[in-house]
């Protein structure tokens, strides 16, 4: 059985004349649980694809909180202790090879994707190539460059998951509206027909620029001073959430896409609405919806900076050092 799979894999790659050109690739890997300083860029063997996978030439990958938590050893139960470990969970690029049992995709197709939460291998999205199943992909937007598109898959899918059940006309509040996930969440909510306000950090510009109505600086405006009530609150920052529960309308829902575990637990044992943690999963339907909204002009990536692959460690250091994020950090894997 394994021999047949290997033959099918090799055949699917050789058909397109690519195998001889992609034996090795660059990949970002961490070699210990010591944060970004243990992250290194090196040459490794390009992954084989199974008959049910495609090989994507990555144009861009983005920096996410999940990556940093893994690098800091906060997810050892899933990542294990066998090093090196790859990093990066979302990407955009072009299909370089197609497994024999894959339909709907061909070499040269522009795609983007999110691999979801899975046990990391020696390479993931922060690499020249990624082997991935089609259910983690959709056709990429055509109106923005692939490197910029890489900023959106995780952020967009997290927002869609957090807004599950949202109806047009509902009034919502996004906490952390200046960040990469928060600014995307504002746009997703607007595309779903909601009215959106935002809690921001040091500046209002990003949240306002992407369409938020009122913005409230959390340094100067406590929750008790925010007027109105919201049917949905989505947190992307994970900072002192319990006081914001008072802003929920009767029957309102409060979700967080940040690892705000203690606030979630406190919400279970104190009076007030429960706060739920949600996380994005691989979702080709959601990615296709996001791509359509990008191409219609309703959603645009908010990018803080783009780093070349050779500066991948600097990108993750910048992420961990940022006191108030303004847009996503993206790594370019283009030549």
TrEMBL record:
Q: Where is the Enoyl reductase (ER) domain?
A: 35-331
The record's annotation in Gene3D superfamilies points to: Medium-chain alcohol dehydrogenases, catalytic domain (3.90.180.10), NAD(P)-binding Rossmann-like Domain (3.40.50.720)
Molecular function (GO) terms for this protein are: oxidoreductase activity
Organism domain of life: Bacteria
Could you tell me which InterPro entries the record lists for this protein?
A: ADH-like_N, ER, GroES-like_sf, NAD(P)-bd_dom_sf, YIM1/Zinc_Alcohol_DH_Fams
> SUPFAM superfamilies this protein is in?
GroES-like, NAD(P)-binding Rossmann-fold domains
Name assigned to this protein = GroES-like protein
User: Upper taxonomic classification of the species?
Assistant: Bacteria, Bacillati, Actinomycetota, Actinomycetes, Mycobacteriales
